[in-house]
């Protein structure tokens, strides 16, 4: 079995190990979605990962979901990211930007826009809006058929800006019930045009968004993250094996850098998707709803089952040197959950490497 510490060739990059830092929102950026010096320190501390996938970045102001999150839709944001990517590269790392369009998981108090979605189906939840606190999610505005291609195109625009900002590539966030996942969903996507109804209709937006990014920066710089069968933000999917088999079949000819799967469905379905996908597969061993972070053993099991790379999220919060801790069999530190989204440097860049 190939272990964590063997190098791997992914597109134009040689990764020194098989460990990926998964994307995690930390809600730490400055006003107007600008990355900061602390953002640069945070990612540079974790640059020993084979690949870093950065936190979700809104590809447009319309697509912003959470407050205090970064963007890649104007020149100022591009300039703010360059010291971050530069710091990662100076420390020997590689970093992709995750492009995350919230769709209906958004609020006018955050972005100033009514959120858009495949259909005008309200999310039955309260959303954190910043100074206004928790507020009920609004009814989103359904995109017209003519508008949908334009919304897919923002992923291409943001991908160009990401490369200009020094990122090595981009990952489209197709997981966890955000806009791409909303189109895949059978209870959020009630459309009867070419973007809804059948499996081929429901996967169309995802494919067009990926194609926009590929056209902008090249296939070897584009990946996508997916969570088959996940019900986060109440986006329910029917016929999961057929839906995701069709999606991977449509994406396969594009020659993407990777597909990044979360373990949000049964092993048989995930193994079927592994067999269906001809390219690089990143596997995240646990679902976001799992109360326990993924273990080394769970990651090794997926390497044995055919994953090329394994991603870890929560383990990277308190263990910036996770690669070395796994290599040397060192104990893992536990993150303080109370500081995940509190802003400032505490619980962000204050976790040290292991002290021998």
From TrEMBL:
Residues in domain NADH:flavin oxidoreductase/NADH oxidase N-terminal?
4-332
What highest taxon heads this organism's lineage?
Answer: Bacteria
Keywords of the record, alphabetical order, are: Oxidoreductase
Q: Does the keyword Oxidoreductase apply?
A: yes
**InterPro entries, A to Z:** Aldolase_TIM (IPR013785), OxRdtase_FMN_N (IPR001155), Oye-like (IPR045247)
Molecular-function GO term, any one: oxidoreductase activity
Top EC class of this enzyme: oxidoreductase
For this protein, the Enzyme Commission number is 1.-.-.-
| UniProt-recorded name of the protein | N-ethylmaleimide reductase
